[in-house]
Automatic annotation (TrEMBL):
This is NAD-dependent epimerase. Residues 3-262 form the NAD-dependent epimerase/dehydratase domain. It comes from the Bacteria. The keyword Amino-acid biosynthesis does not apply. Keywords: NAD. InterPro entries: Epimerase_deHydtase, NAD(P)-bd_dom_sf. Gene3D superfamilies: NAD(P)-binding Rossmann-like Domain, UDP-galactose 4-epimerase, domain 1. It comes from Flavobacterium album. SUPFAM superfamilies: NAD(P)-binding Rossmann-fold domains. The keyword Nucleus does not apply. Pfam families: Epimerase.
Length: 335
């Protein structure tokens, strides 16, 4: 199949593209390569996929590995005309939309960036699917839609009408927009609420990267809510397997579906830090701070629906996952 992966230079998009290529599919990757975090990390991921040099704007670049089955284009989802041209010329079978402005805390500083990328950009993807007869769209939602929900584990049956960050509000909006297009135009849409994804090539703004970087470089780490937090940390390989399962779902009904995708085994923040200390062989200097605006105390995914429909079974424990990340980090940064 020919599959469009938006956000292909991002953490999850890169790993998904690798997996799809290994399966024998043709992949077109799209990313605007913004400077929310170090673009060299994004370019490094693209090099792993066979794209060398700095990708040019709105020009398809063919990779040098995987039998030239990976192409990349630097483009933002907001570029409606360019996006439509891409759909018109490529004849995609499936779309996996992972592109978005990420980060809960950053949405307090740059709110319009989230509207442009996550709302307008997602609308352009939906319209492109409608106008160019793409009948399947899998897209990234987020565990942040649960807001201050105190019922655990979080279930897709829970009410999510009270987001506490603009980022979360945009993701909830995406789910509502997808429902509308499934109902009106018969597009099969599947939303995936990701729970704290981590692993090699991870994002520098996430706890795994921030803590490892600080500990190895003898800098203090910021521990919010005095360490009274827990997260459903989910290793990247388990996430990718879940995405792949939904991409190739052959069921005709229902047209609209939302799933949680997580490890379903929440880990206390201080235990998570302890695992990093074990893997690095160093002790963290902890700076205890109050809860940050937009953050939640705990996350925990109910993944029974994904297990029932796709036999989803995450099997990477936190110790193994942390070791894999630390090994990658030391190699990438020559430590």
């Amino acid at each position: 199949m020919k599959i469009l992966v938006t956000g292909a230079a991002g953490f999850i998009g890169y790993h998904l593209s690798q997996r799809l290529l290994a399966m024998g599919h043709d992949v077109v990757g799209l990313d605007n390569i913004n400077d929310y975090y170090d673009i060299n990390l994004k370019l490094g991921r693209l090099r792993e996929l066979g794209i060398s040099g700095t990708p040019a704007d709105n020009v398809l670049l063919t990779g040098e590995i995987f039998n030239d089955r990976f192409q990349f284009i630097k483009m933002g989802l907001e570029e409606r005309d360019n996006l439509y041209n891409l759909f018109e010329t490529q004849n995609f079978d499936i779309i996996c939309n992972l592109a978005a402005q990420a980060g809960v805390r950053f949405s307090l500083e740059k709110p319009f960036t989230y509207i442009d990328s996550n709302i307008l950009g997602f609308m352009n993807i939906l319209e492109a699917c409608r106008n160019y007869n793409v009948k399947k769209l899998v897209y990234a939602s987020s565990s942040s839609v649960y807001g201050l929900n105190d019922k655990i584990p979080f279930s897709t049956d829970d009410n999510v009408d009270h987001p506490i960050s603009l980022y979360a509000a945009t993701k909830k909006s995406n789910e509502l927009m997808a429902h509308t297009y499934s109902h009106l135009f018969g597009i099969k849409t599947t939303g995936l609420r990701f729970f704290t994804v981590y692993g090699p090539w991870g994002r520098p703004d996430m706890a795994m990267f921030l803590f490892t970087d600080a500990i190895l470089n003898d800098k203090p780490i910021k521990v919010f809510n005095d360490g009274n937090l827990s997260r459903d940390f989910t290793y990247i390989d388990d996430i990718v397997e879940g995405i792949v399962a939904t991409l190739f779902d052959e069921q005709q009904e229902p047209l609209y579906k939302v799933y949680n995708i997580g490890n379903s085994k929440p880990v206390k923040l201080l235990d998570f830090i302890s695992e990093i200390e074990k893997s690095t062989g160093k002790t963290a200097q902890k700076e205890y701070l109050p809860m940050q605006p937009g953050d939640v105390e705990k996350t925990w995914a109910d993944v029974e629906a994904l297990k029932n429909d796709f036999d989803y079974s995450p099997d990477t424990d936190i110790a193994e996952g942390v070791r894999e990340f630390v090994t990658w980090y030391k190699s990438y940064y020559n430590q």
